[in-house]
């Protein structure tokens, strides 16, 4: 009997183990359906560019060689690291060509690139899939021509702010698939949009979907998460996600019959009884209006400021509540404060910027001691203990003790994106100066423009140019690109070109020149540009009139203003 009982005990454990393994395999396999890798292509990786000539389009490669003659009404390059070019003469019928001009994917009636919208990208297309048309219906293929889905859709388009997801149409209804072909949402809705959620690490990957249907009583909205799970049925007049709140929790402001509430992960936190709700990202508070009075509720649903005020104005960590002539200042927890400070913005562990009732700015330390004897009409934190300040219309930089680091003589200052370098415009001369990360001023150029590249900053005007590294230190172009064969040089206000040994090969008699790009450079005189080779010789007698300042040549072509983020060259 003991043996028999032992067997009865072992068999269920074995079955449970098998079941757990099967469930685990299912979960892993199921999750993989939703996982996909978005390609990121840097400017340096681009192999092919769009060419425009006489109103028609073609393709050149990164050396400036003509790949596809400019004879089409449109050309799309979905992945410019690969020789796949989608061309059309009428905007309706599309074919794919390779670098030899031969047709690709001939087994399909039509093949198109899928544009992505409202996402900053140097390649505004889905980069790993195309849509094809067969027998009047659409599906998607990879760039090798392999089918990802069958041709079962009436239309396929990108979803704004949701690269890697595609809106598909069947019988007048819309759903969502991803670029692996996984059905995220069945085509059952009148329209579907992304909720717009974004974080630095995973970009738009965790954005969900707002769903809409049309009923006899008008439009109704619902919500699905990124995997298509329906969180809210289509019962609401409005739905919007609080995209400023990062993390896995999804907070949705919803409306029913003109009244607003808050739902967290499908659970009602605040009942739909307010005439308006606005989110304050400084304090993670909801400023609510009920009929004609205002108050504040936190995202857990607790009422921290009574809904009893004529108006509420948020100033950082301080909240100004107005009722008649009375003004009460609350902190972010709803505690009344005895202070004349209407705005308190903590900028780091050591300092905060405050504004008093007279709209004067100051800096306080962690113990709320005022740091500045002098008040300013504007203060903005720069970094560490440095602040941009404005007084009497003039702007400069001070430290936390009020010491002037950069004289207040500029009309505007702005940090250059993803650097600690500042561009500053001088009031008197309209000169743009560069202030490096150590607060040293580098005198710049008048009537100048800024262009930030991956490895350097370019400051340029109609007849001059300067280069800086990403710390703001001035550099020569030779220091940035030591392997070039020729470089721009300036003498007595005129420009020429020298070889890598410093010998002049193009005399300094031009109004402006460009730096070397592959095997050519440009020279400008009397408003006309020409192209020279690496020996300094003109490649032809052709002259170009170019209205913009940041000029670049590639072989016999010049770079035009980009189209929707795409670099386009022209030979006209």
**pLDDT below 50 for ≥5 consecutive residues: which ranges?**
1-10
Mean pLDDT: 92
Helix and strand composition category: mainly beta
Q: Number of DSSP strands?
A: 53
Please state roughly what percent of the residues sit in beta strands, choosing from under 5%, 5-15%, 15-25%, 25-35%, 35-45% or over 45%: over 45%
The neighbouring-strand order within the major sheet is 34-35-36-37-38-39-40
Radius of gyration: 31 Å
Q: Enumerate how many helices there are, as a single number.
A: 2
End-to-end Cα distance, whole Å, is: 96 Å
Sheet with the most strands? 7 strands, antiparallel
Helix proportion range: under 10%
Shape: flat
Describe the structure.
The chain is mainly beta. Among the domains are: 1-32; 40-157, no CATH class; 476-572, no CATH class. The protein has a seven-stranded antiparallel sheet with strand order 34-35-36-37-38-39-40, with no helix packed on it. Strands 3-2-1-53-52-51 form a six-stranded mixed sheet, with no helix packed on it. It is flat and about 80 Å long. It starts with a helix and ends with a strand. The model is unreliable at 1-10 (pLDDT under 50).
Annotation keywords:
single chain, 572 residues, mainly beta, 6% helix, 49% strand, disordered N terminus
Q: TL;DR of this structure?
A:
The protein has about 575 residues and is mostly beta strands.
List the SSEs and their pairings.
Blueprint: H1 2-32, E1 48-53, E2 56-61, E3 66-72, E4 74-76, E5 85-88, E6 94-97, E7 103-104, E8 110-112, E9 129-134, E10 137-142, E11 155-158, E12 165-170, E13 173-178, E14 183-189, E15 191-194, E16 209-215, E17 218-224, E18 230-236, E19 238-241, E20 251-256, E21 259-264, E22 267-274, E23 276-280, E24 285-290, E25 293-298, E26 303-309, E27 311-315, E28 318-323, E29 326-330, E30 336-337, E31 341-346, E32 351-356, E33 361-365, E34 378-383, E35 386-391, E36 394-399, E37 404-415, E38 422-426, E39 431-435, E40 441-446, E41 449-452, E42 457-460, E43 465-468, E44 474-475, H2 477-480, E45 486-491, E46 494-499, E47 504-510, E48 512-513, E49 520-525, E50 528-533, E51 553-554, E52 557-559, E53 568-570
Parallel strand pairs: 1-53
Antiparallel strand pairs: 1-2, 2-3, 4-5, 5-6, 6-7, 8-9, 9-10, 11-12, 12-13, 13-14, 15-16, 16-17, 17-18, 19-20, 20-21, 21-22, 23-24, 24-25, 25-26, 27-28, 28-29, 29-30, 31-32, 32-33, 34-35, 35-36, 36-37, 37-38, 38-39, 39-40, 41-42, 42-43, 43-44, 45-46, 46-47, 48-49, 49-50, 51-52, 52-53
């Amino acid at each position: 009997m003991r043996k028999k009982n032992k067997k009865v005990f072992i068999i269920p454990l074995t079955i449970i183990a098998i079941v757990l393994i099967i469930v685990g395999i299912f979960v892993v396999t199921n999750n993989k359906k939703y996982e996909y890798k978005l390609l990121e292509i840097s400017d340096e990786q681009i192999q092919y560019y769009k060419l425009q000539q006489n109103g028609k389009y073609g393709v050149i490669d990164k050396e400036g060689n003509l790949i596809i003659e400019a004879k089409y009404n449109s050309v799309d390059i979905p992945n410019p690291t690969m020789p796949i070019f989608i061309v059309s003469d009428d905007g309706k019928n599309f074919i794919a060509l390779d670098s030899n001009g031969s047709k690709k994917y001939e087994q399909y009636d039509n093949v198109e690139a899928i544009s992505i919208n409202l996402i900053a990208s140097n390649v505004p297309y889905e980069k790993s899939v195309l849509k094809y048309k067969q027998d009047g219906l659409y599906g998607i293929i990879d760039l090798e021509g392999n089918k990802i889905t069958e041709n079962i859709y009436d239309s396929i388009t990108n979803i704004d702010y949701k690269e890697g997801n595609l809106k598909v149409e069947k019988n007048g209804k819309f759903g969502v698939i991803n670029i692996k072909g996984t059905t995220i949402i069945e085509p059952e809705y009148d329209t579907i949009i992304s909720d717009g959620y974004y974080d630095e690490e995973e970009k738009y990957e965790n954005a969900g979907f707002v769903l809409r249907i049309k009923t006899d009583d008008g439009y109704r909205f619902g919500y699905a998460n990124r995997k298509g799970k329906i969180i809210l049925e289509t019962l609401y007049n409005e739905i919007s996600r609080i995209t400023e709140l990062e993390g896995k929790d999804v907070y949705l402001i919803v409306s029913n019959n003109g009244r607003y509430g808050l739902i967290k992960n499908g659970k009602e936190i605040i009942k739909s009884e307010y005439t308006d709700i606005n989110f304050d990202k400084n304090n993670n508070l909801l400023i609510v209006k009920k009929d004609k009075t205002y108050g504040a509720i936190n995202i857990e649903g607790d009422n921290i400021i009574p809904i009893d005020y004529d108006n509420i104005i948020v100033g950082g960590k301080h909240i100004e509540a107005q009722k008649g002539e009375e003004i009460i200042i609350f902190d972010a927890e709803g505690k009344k404060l005895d202070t004349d400070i209407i705005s308190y913005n903590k900028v780091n562990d050591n300092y905060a910027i405050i504004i008093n009732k007279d709209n004067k700015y100051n800096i306080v330390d962690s113990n709320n001691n005022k740091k500045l004897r002098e008040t300013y009409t504007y203060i903005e934190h720069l970094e560490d203990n440095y602040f941009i300040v404005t007084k009497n219309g003039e702007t400069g930089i001070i430290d936390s003790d009020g010491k002037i680091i950069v004289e207040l003589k500029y009309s505007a200052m702005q940090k250059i994106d993803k650097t600690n370098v500042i561009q500053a415009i001088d009031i008197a001369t309209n000169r743009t100066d560069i202030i490096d990360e150590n607060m040293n001023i580098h005198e710049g150029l008048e009537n100048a423009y800024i262009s930030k590249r991956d490895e350097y900053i370019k400051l340029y005007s109609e007849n001059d140019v300067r280069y800086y590294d990403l710390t703001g230190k001035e550099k020569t172009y030779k220091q940035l690109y030591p392997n070039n064969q020729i470089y721009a040089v300036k003498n007595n206000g005129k420009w020429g070109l020298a070889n890598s040994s410093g010998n002049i090969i193009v005399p300094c008699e031009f109004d402006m020149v460009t730096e070397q790009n592959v095997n050519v450079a440009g020279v400008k005189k009397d408003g006309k540009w020409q192209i020279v080779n690496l020996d300094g010789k003109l490649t032809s007698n052709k002259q170009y009139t170019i209205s913009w300042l940041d000029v670049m040549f590639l072989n016999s072509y010049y770079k035009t203003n980009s189209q929707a983020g795409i670099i386009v060259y022209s030979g006209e």
